[in-house]
Write a structure and sequence with these properties.
- The structure is a single chain.
- The chain is mostly helical.
- It has one domain.
- Helices cover about 45% and strands about 5% of the residues.
Protein backbone atom coordinates (compact mmCIF):
# COMPACT_ATOMS: atom_id res chain seq x y z
CA UNK A 1 0.00 0.00 0.00
CA UNK A 2 1.35 3.40 -0.88
CA UNK A 3 1.93 5.88 1.93
CA UNK A 4 0.20 8.97 0.65
CA UNK A 5 -2.95 10.93 1.40
CA UNK A 6 -6.14 11.58 -0.51
CA UNK A 7 -5.42 15.35 -0.65
CA UNK A 8 -2.02 14.57 -2.25
CA UNK A 9 -3.75 12.45 -4.88
CA UNK A 10 -6.45 15.05 -5.53
CA UNK A 11 -3.76 17.71 -6.01
CA UNK A 12 -1.89 15.46 -8.44
CA UNK A 13 -4.96 14.86 -10.64
CA UNK A 14 -6.18 18.46 -10.53
CA UNK A 15 -5.47 18.88 -14.25
CA UNK A 16 -7.22 15.64 -15.31
CA UNK A 17 -10.30 15.91 -17.50
CA UNK A 18 -13.21 13.70 -16.47
CA UNK A 19 -14.39 11.14 -17.35
CA UNK A 20 -10.89 9.70 -17.18
CA UNK A 21 -9.37 6.25 -17.36
CA UNK A 22 -6.80 4.90 -14.94
CA UNK A 23 -4.07 5.59 -17.50
CA UNK A 24 -5.28 9.20 -17.93
CA UNK A 25 -5.08 9.74 -14.18
CA UNK A 26 -1.59 8.26 -13.89
CA UNK A 27 -0.41 10.44 -16.77
CA UNK A 28 -1.99 13.57 -15.24
CA UNK A 29 -0.21 12.84 -11.96
CA UNK A 30 3.13 12.42 -13.71
CA UNK A 31 2.65 15.68 -15.62
CA UNK A 32 1.91 17.51 -12.38
CA UNK A 33 5.15 16.24 -10.83
CA UNK A 34 3.48 13.98 -8.28
CA UNK A 35 5.57 11.84 -5.96
CA UNK A 36 6.24 8.21 -6.78
CA UNK A 37 3.93 7.19 -3.90
CA UNK A 38 1.03 9.07 -5.50
CA UNK A 39 1.72 7.48 -8.89
CA UNK A 40 1.90 4.02 -7.27
CA UNK A 41 -1.41 4.61 -5.51
CA UNK A 42 -3.04 5.59 -8.81
CA UNK A 43 -1.56 2.58 -10.57
CA UNK A 44 -3.27 0.43 -7.92
CA UNK A 45 -6.81 1.57 -8.73
CA UNK A 46 -9.13 -0.63 -10.81
CA UNK A 47 -8.98 -0.06 -14.59
CA UNK A 48 -12.28 1.78 -14.98
CA UNK A 49 -13.66 5.06 -16.25
CA UNK A 50 -13.81 7.56 -13.39
CA UNK A 51 -16.47 10.25 -13.67
CA UNK A 52 -15.09 12.61 -11.04
CA UNK A 53 -12.48 13.05 -8.31
CA UNK A 54 -14.76 11.49 -5.67
CA UNK A 55 -14.75 8.22 -7.63
CA UNK A 56 -10.96 8.28 -7.59
CA UNK A 57 -10.85 9.09 -3.86
CA UNK A 58 -13.04 6.07 -3.10
CA UNK A 59 -10.98 3.72 -5.26
CA UNK A 60 -7.44 4.64 -4.30
CA UNK A 61 -5.75 2.88 -1.39
CA UNK A 62 -3.82 5.14 0.94
CA UNK A 63 -2.14 4.86 4.30
CA UNK A 64 -4.85 4.08 6.87
CA UNK A 65 -3.42 6.62 9.32
CA UNK A 66 -3.81 9.40 6.75
CA UNK A 67 -7.61 9.26 6.90
CA UNK A 68 -8.97 12.52 8.10
CA UNK A 69 -11.93 12.75 10.45
CA UNK A 70 -11.64 9.16 11.61
CA UNK A 71 -10.93 8.05 15.13
CA UNK A 72 -9.43 4.82 16.39
CA UNK A 73 -12.77 3.10 16.84
CA UNK A 74 -13.84 3.94 13.26
CA UNK A 75 -10.54 2.62 11.86
CA UNK A 76 -10.99 -0.57 13.90
CA UNK A 77 -14.50 -1.00 12.53
CA UNK A 78 -13.20 -0.55 8.99
CA UNK A 79 -10.49 -3.14 9.62
CA UNK A 80 -13.10 -5.63 10.88
CA UNK A 81 -15.15 -5.04 7.73
CA UNK A 82 -12.11 -5.76 5.58
CA UNK A 83 -11.14 -2.29 4.40
CA UNK A 84 -12.25 1.21 3.67
CA UNK A 85 -15.69 2.04 2.31
CA UNK A 86 -15.48 1.92 -1.46
CA UNK A 87 -12.64 -0.61 -1.46
CA UNK A 88 -13.13 -3.18 -4.20
CA UNK A 89 -14.50 -6.46 -2.93
CA UNK A 90 -11.58 -8.31 -4.50
CA UNK A 91 -9.16 -6.36 -2.30
CA UNK A 92 -10.98 -7.10 0.96
CA UNK A 93 -10.22 -10.00 3.23
CA UNK A 94 -13.64 -11.61 3.30
CA UNK A 95 -14.28 -15.18 4.42
CA UNK A 96 -15.63 -17.55 1.80
CA UNK A 97 -19.30 -18.49 2.02
CA UNK A 98 -19.87 -22.08 3.20
CA UNK A 99 -21.01 -23.24 -0.23
CA UNK A 100 -17.76 -22.00 -1.81
CA UNK A 101 -15.75 -23.87 0.81
CA UNK A 102 -17.62 -27.08 -0.08
CA UNK A 103 -17.05 -26.56 -3.80
CA UNK A 104 -13.33 -26.00 -3.25
CA UNK A 105 -12.97 -29.44 -1.63
Amino acid sequence: MAHTTVPDIMKAIKSADFPASKEDLVEAARRSGASEEVVKALRGIPPEQYTNRDDVAHSVRVDVDSDQDTNRSRRAEQARQGGKPGLAQGLRDVPKPPIQEELDQ
